[in-house]
Amino acid sequence: MDAAPTRVKGILGTANPPTGMPKKEKEEFNVPQHTHCKVCGKAIPLGQVYCSKECMEKDRKQQRRSSTMFTVYMGVVAAVFLVLIFITAHFK
Ligand SMILES: [Zn+2]
After folding, report:
1. CA distance 36 to 42
2. Residue 60: closest CA among 50, 75, 71
3. Cα of 2 to ligand 1 centre, how many Å?
4. Do the domain assignments include residue 9?
5. Residue 36 belongs to a domain
6. Separation of CA 37 and ligand 1 centre (Å)
7. How far is the centre of ligand 1, averaged over its atoms, from the C-alpha of 41 (Å)?
8. For 20-48, what is each residue's pLDDT tens digit?
């Protein structure tokens, strides 16, 4: 049997040098208390909901649309329900 000399790969003696990772600058950036625009996410002073009238309008429109969709949906459900009741009543 031939015992081949095993070579140890890798250097065991060297310790990993500390990588020079710079501290995150964001942590040092001290922002006064603020909130974000409900629509676009811009930073705005506390107490405000939107950054501009544009965003306010956008949100209002969206809300109106979603409430309209809800009303339509409820109307459809009610209509289906009424039809079902009507059919059931007719088949008795
Ligand atoms: Zn906005």
Report:
1. 5
2. 50
3. 76
4. no
5. yes
6. 5
7. 6
8. 766 555 555 676 789 999 999 999 999 99
Q: What is the DSSP string of the chain?
A: ---PPPP--S-SSPPPPPP-PPPPHHHH--PPSEEE-TTT--EEETT-S-SSHHHHHHHHHHHHHHHHHHHHHHHHHHHHHHHHHHHHHHH-
In whole angstroms, what is the distance from residue 43 CA to residue 25 CA? 18
- Ligand 1 center–CA 61 separation, angstroms: 14
Q: How remote is the CA of residue 55 from the centroid of ligand 1, in Å?
A: 5
For residue 70, the CA-to-ligand 1 centroid distance in Å is: 25
Checking if the pLDDT of 60 tops 90, the result is yes
What residues does the ion ligand 1 have nearby, CB within 5 Å? 37, 39-40, 42, 51, 55
Instruction: Tell me, yes or no, whether 16 lies in a domain.
Output: no
